[in-house]
C-alpha cells in the first residue's frame, strides 16, 4: 500500500510539474507562433517592396533586383528565427556565432561559386553587355542569351550553346559589337602598278556612296595605304550602322571586285621578279673525278 501511495504521489508531482511547465511556456509558444506568422508576412512584403523599389532604379537589372529582394526576405526570416529561439531562453549570441562560423565555412567551400556571384552582380550593375548583344573575349564569343548570378548563356556564331562562368567574363577585356550604333570598316585591296590609282579610288568611293546603308557622316574616304612588293595597296574607309555592318561589308567587298573587273583594274597575285645581267657568265661546272682503280699485287 505504501508503494502504491508513493507512486500516486510521484505521478501527481510529475503532472503538476508538467502543468507548471505548460503554463510557463504557453505564452512563449503563443509568442513564437505570432512572431513566425508576422515575420513570414513581413518578409514577403519587404521582399516585394525591395523588388519594386530596385526595379524603378535606372540601370538595375531584373535579375539583380530579384536577388536583393530574396536577400532581404531570408535575412528577415533569419532574424525571426533567432527571436523565436530567444523566447525559449536560448542564448542568441551563441547562435549568431555559430551562424557566422557556418557562413565562413560555406564561403571557403564555395569560393569559386561566390566569385561567380560577385562577378555576376558587377556585370548586372555595370552592364558591359546586355541580352541580345554580340560580344567577344580572348576565349569566348557569341550573342548573349541570359545573364545569371552564376553564369552567362551565349549562342555562338555557328549556332552552338555556351555557358560561361561570370568570373571568366568579368576579369578579361570584352569587345561589344552591338553596344554602339555605328561601326567603321577599313577595306584594303591591292591593284597593279600599271593601273590608274585615281580611277580605282573613284570606283570604290562611287560604290559606297551609292549604298544607302553607308553613312554620309562621317563621309567615306579612299587613299593609298602603302606600296607593296607586287601591288599598290588602297584602303576604303566608311561607316555603317552596327545592325547592318556585316552584310554591308560583304556586299562592298564583292562590289569592288566586280567593279574593278568591269573597269579593267587588276588585283595582282603576289609575284617576285628575278633579273640576271646578260653579261654575267655562267659559273663553271664542277666535275668530280672518279678515284683511280687500285691494282692488285
Automatic annotation (TrEMBL):
Keywords recorded for this protein, A-Z: Cell inner membrane, Cell membrane, Ion channel, Ion transport, Membrane, Transmembrane, Transmembrane helix, Transport
Spans traversing the lipid bilayer: 22-43, 64-89, 95-126
Alphabetical list of Gene3D superfamilies matching this protein: 1.10.287.1260, 2.30.30.60, 3.30.70.100
Region (Disordered): 276-297
Main localization category: membrane
Annotated family: Belongs to the MscS (TC 1.A.23) family.
The name this protein goes by in its record: Small-conductance mechanosensitive channel
Species: Pseudorhizobium endolithicum
Amino acid at each position: 500500500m505504501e508503494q502504491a501511495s508513493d507512486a500516486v504521489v510521484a505521478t501527481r508531482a510529475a503532472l503538476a510539474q508538467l502543468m507548471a511547465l505548460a503554463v510557463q511556456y504557453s505564452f512563449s509558444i503563443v509568442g513564437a507562433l505570432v512572431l513566425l506568422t508576422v515575420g513570414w508576412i513581413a518578409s514577403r512584403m519587404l521582399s516585394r517592396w525591395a523588388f519594386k523599389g530596385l526595379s524603378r532604379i535606372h540601370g538595375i537589372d531584373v535579375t539583380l533586383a530579384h536577388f536583393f529582394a530574396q536577400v532581404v526576405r531570408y535575412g528577415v526570416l533569419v532574424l525571426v528565427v533567432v527571436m523565436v529561439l530567444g523566447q525559449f531562453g536560448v542564448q542568441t549570441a551563441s547562435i549568431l556565432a555559430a551562424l557566422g562560423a557556418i557562413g565562413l565555412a560555406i564561403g571557403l567551400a564555395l569560393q569559386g561559386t561566390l566569385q561567380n556571384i560577385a562577378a555576376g552582380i558587377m556585370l548586372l550593375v555595370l552592364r558591359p553587355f546586355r541580352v541580345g548583344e554580340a560580344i567577344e573575349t580572348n576565349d569566348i564569343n557569341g550573342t548573349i542569351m541570359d545573364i545569371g548570378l552564376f553564369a552567362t548563356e551565349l549562342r555562338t556564331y555557328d549556332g552552338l550553346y555556351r555557358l560561361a562562368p561570370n568570373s571568366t567574363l568579368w576579369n578579361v577585356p570584352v569587345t561589344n559589337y552591338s553596344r554602339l550604333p555605328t561601326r567603321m570598316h577599313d577595306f584594303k585591296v591591292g591593284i597593279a602598278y600599271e593601273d590608274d590609282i585615281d580611277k580605282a579610288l573613284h570606283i570604290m568611293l562611287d560604290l559606297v556612296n551609292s549604298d544607302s546603308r553607308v553613312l554620309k557622316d562621317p563621309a567615306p574616304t579612299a587613299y593609298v595605304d602603302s606600296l607593296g612588293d607586287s601591288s599598290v595597296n588602297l584602303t576604303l574607309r566608311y561607316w555603317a550602322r552596327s545592325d547592318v555592318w556585316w552584310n554591308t561589308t560583304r556586299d562592298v567587298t564583292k562590289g569592288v571586285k566586280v567593279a574593278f573587273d568591269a573597269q579593267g583594274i587588276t588585283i595582282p597575285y603576289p609575284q617576285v621578279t628575278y633579273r640576271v645581267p646578260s653579261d654575267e657568265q655562267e659559273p663553271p661546272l664542277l666535275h668530280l673525278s672518279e678515284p683511280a682503280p687500285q691494282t692488285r699485287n
